[in-house]
Amino acid sequence: RWVKFEEKVEDGGERWSAPHVPALPLQSLFQLRTCLQKGTMLLDLDAPSFKEIIDKALSGQPEEAELQTELRERLAALLLRQPRHQPTKSLLRLLAELGLSPCRGRHGARPWLLHPECPAAASLSFQLRNRFKKKVPPGAEAAHVAVGEVEFLEKPFTAFIRLRRGVALGSLAEVALPSRFLFILLGPRAEVKAYHEVGRAMATLLTDELFQRVARRAEHREDLIAGMEAFLDELTVLPPRKWDPSARILPPSCLLSPHRRTAMHPLDRQSHGNGDTAAAGDRASLGHPCSREELERTGRLFGGLLRDIQRKAPWYGSDFSDALHPQCLSAVLYIYLATVTNAITFGGMLGDATANMQGVLESFLGTAFAGSIFCLFSGQPLTILSSTGPVLVFERLLFSFSEDHSLDYLEFRLWIGLWVAFFGMVLVATEASHLVRYFTRFTEEGFCALISLIFIYDSLKKMLSLADAFPINWQYRLDNVTSYSCVCNFRRLLNPILACLTTSAPSSTPLHPVYPSPPAAPAGLSRSQCLGQGGHLLGTSCQYVPDVTLVSFLLFGGTFLSCTALKRFRSSRYFPAGVRKLVSDFAIILAILGSCAIDATLGLETPKLLVPSELKPTNPARGWIVFPFRANPWWVCLVSAVPAILVTILIFMDQQITAVILNRREYKLQKGAGFHLDLLCVSFLMVVTSATGLPWYVSATVISLAHMESLRKESATSAPGEHPEFLGIREQRLTGLAVFVLTGVSVFMAPVLK
């Protein structure tokens, strides 16, 4: 059978093979061309039943090849016999259904062969039960190819039939579909292999999109032959004995569209110039939005912003109603876990860089607030806000500069944030976002690489610093454990005995317990000597092993490697596709939970997150509001404009490059972008986060792409071997809003986060 690719019955007729690209003998195509040239051809036949189709096909033979009446009757009886279809369900289930059916199979070894006494009812019942129809695209029609050898024919009988309209031919098809084409090739014995290959060639032709157009529009036999010649022009021939004909070619991941096949054809290239027009169209469909309306200048102050608002306002209601889909629920859970882990990671790094002036609690609160506001009012709500690597580097440099010059870090940072917000408003007013059209793919990839490398560098630096807090004792020897404040005792530790001393003291005199002291042990005994002489070790450091740093590195590497392996589990051969996708989607959180479980089992005092148990700043020396004039000189508010220019460039690049990546044409977004509106929201959030001492937030490229990937819409049906068609992204605001609300609630999970 063919839908897009060929499938064969294998394993003794028990199951269908994997879909594969059909490999045809070249001779079979030449023989098929001869059959089409000399055989019966009925185009736009108007017949309501299969019997009438066969009668007209047999009576429409050319005079020189006209069949005798007896042969026509025998051929009609043969062709009208009930077909036997290959089941697509398990043998056990089929046996159970046949056991309950009044019409049972005769052959115990082949229970799917239908009983000839009630073939029509059984075949129709098989059609209704067949789940293969889910694989058939909507609006599809069936083509039937009947080939074989018979004893009573002396020369082959060939017929190609195209019906005027699709007709349901009962149980002729494996699933209930209207039929449009029929090809029949019957002939004498000794050429059965040739007939079979010719039939495969005809079926392969009918699954080709370009030949389908020719077959549907052909008015004469010559049109059909010309369509086959065009098919032969695109063939690639493999030399004999240079490859294994039994090897199956797997379907490609991306098929060339019929339009591009036509444009690449040498005869068609004359009508398209030198192919530059088609190539330009392909670049425009997948390239940068150079001609997009969102990036065209209006020449008015805030003209781009007003256009963004006018473009997004009609979609605001659907941004919530479109989220009422089960896929959005799984996307919320997936992105929530990714956002939480990112907030934990960045909060820990930021706490180390700023002496806990900003920590995990501030990271959670800032992520929840900034993300929620952005999802409600931004131009592209699929964007996920987060702190990024370049921002982390600037925070570290700013804190070091403030410490070196005795400046209040949070107050200095407040003025920088206010200047950044002002410069952002200027960029929005002057429509500076149109510069995004000049960003190349190299710029995007380079900036993404910078962000990634900063996080990688910071994580490795953090791990290497563990050797300072938890130094590895390279001189440690297990046999010398007694020298580490450990006592060798030769008698079991006795329970304290409270001795009551009888004295003449008054009753108010307090009584003190008396503890028997253990016998002294010879000094200088090693661990093995102590245990060898029947003693036991007594002391707090007897069981100490300085492996905190080593275990931390093992957890560090194990988390990364297990996360990478679980991410690749999607392409594994184990478990059903749904299970593999679920494991791959939650690879990050599964790896973290697994490493945390190992750490809890070992019980070592590895470094943990510093998360306040109350809703208070991580550093008790600061409050929730940063005042502009308190500790720093007055001129700091003016000098802050210089570093603010650098931060503005940084945030503009980070925000807009992410926006360009998310709004590429290849994602088929329907509701448009809002580059100016997004930058306005980020500028407003800079004011609030700076005044409250929360981290600064811009679009996070990786998490935003993961968010879009989790909201992909694909065709519900796809042919065997064909990847589902990408239909676009489920554009809405609710998933991001739910993610950030859950992130805010996670503040109260301090014991778990620790």
TrEMBL record:
<feature type="domain" description="Bicarbonate transporter-like transmembrane">
    <location>
        <begin position="300"/>
        <end position="754"/>
    </location>
</feature>
<feature type="transmembrane region" description="Helical">
    <location>
        <begin position="586"/>
        <end position="604"/>
    </location>
</feature>
<dbReference type="GO" id="GO:0008509">
    <property type="term" value="F:monoatomic anion transmembrane transporter activity"/>
</dbReference>
<keyword id="KW-1133">Transmembrane helix</keyword>
<feature type="transmembrane region" description="Helical">
    <location>
        <begin position="363"/>
        <end position="392"/>
    </location>
</feature>
<dbReference type="GO" id="GO:0016323">
    <property type="term" value="C:basolateral plasma membrane"/>
</dbReference>
<dbReference type="GO" id="GO:0008510">
    <property type="term" value="F:sodium:bicarbonate symporter activity"/>
</dbReference>
<comment type="similarity">
    <text>Belongs to the anion exchanger (TC 2.A.31) family.</text>
</comment>
<keyword id="KW-0406">Ion transport</keyword>
<feature type="transmembrane region" description="Helical">
    <location>
        <begin position="674"/>
        <end position="698"/>
    </location>
</feature>
<dbReference type="InterPro" id="IPR003024">
    <property type="entry name" value="Na/HCO3_transpt"/>
</dbReference>
<feature type="transmembrane region" description="Helical">
    <location>
        <begin position="331"/>
        <end position="351"/>
    </location>
</feature>
<keyword id="KW-0812">Transmembrane</keyword>
<feature type="domain" description="Band 3 cytoplasmic">
    <location>
        <begin position="126"/>
        <end position="245"/>
    </location>
</feature>
<keyword id="KW-0813">Transport</keyword>
<dbReference type="InterPro" id="IPR011531">
    <property type="entry name" value="HCO3_transpt-like_TM_dom"/>
</dbReference>
<feature type="transmembrane region" description="Helical">
    <location>
        <begin position="633"/>
        <end position="653"/>
    </location>
</feature>
<dbReference type="Pfam" id="PF00955">
    <property type="entry name" value="HCO3_cotransp"/>
</dbReference>
<feature type="transmembrane region" description="Helical">
    <location>
        <begin position="734"/>
        <end position="753"/>
    </location>
</feature>
<protein>
    <recommendedName>
        <fullName>Anion exchange protein</fullName>
    </recommendedName>
</protein>
<dbReference type="GO" id="GO:0051453">
    <property type="term" value="P:regulation of intracellular pH"/>
</dbReference>
<keyword id="KW-1003">Cell membrane</keyword>
<dbReference type="Pfam" id="PF07565">
    <property type="entry name" value="Band_3_cyto"/>
</dbReference>
<feature type="transmembrane region" description="Helical">
    <location>
        <begin position="412"/>
        <end position="430"/>
    </location>
</feature>
<dbReference type="InterPro" id="IPR013769">
    <property type="entry name" value="Band3_cytoplasmic_dom"/>
</dbReference>
<keyword id="KW-0472">Membrane</keyword>
<dbReference type="GO" id="GO:0005452">
    <property type="term" value="F:solute:inorganic anion antiporter activity"/>
</dbReference>
<dbReference type="InterPro" id="IPR016152">
    <property type="entry name" value="PTrfase/Anion_transptr"/>
</dbReference>
<feature type="region of interest" description="Disordered">
    <location>
        <begin position="265"/>
        <end position="287"/>
    </location>
</feature>
<feature type="domain" description="Band 3 cytoplasmic">
    <location>
        <begin position="1"/>
        <end position="91"/>
    </location>
</feature>
<dbReference type="InterPro" id="IPR003020">
    <property type="entry name" value="HCO3_transpt_euk"/>
</dbReference>
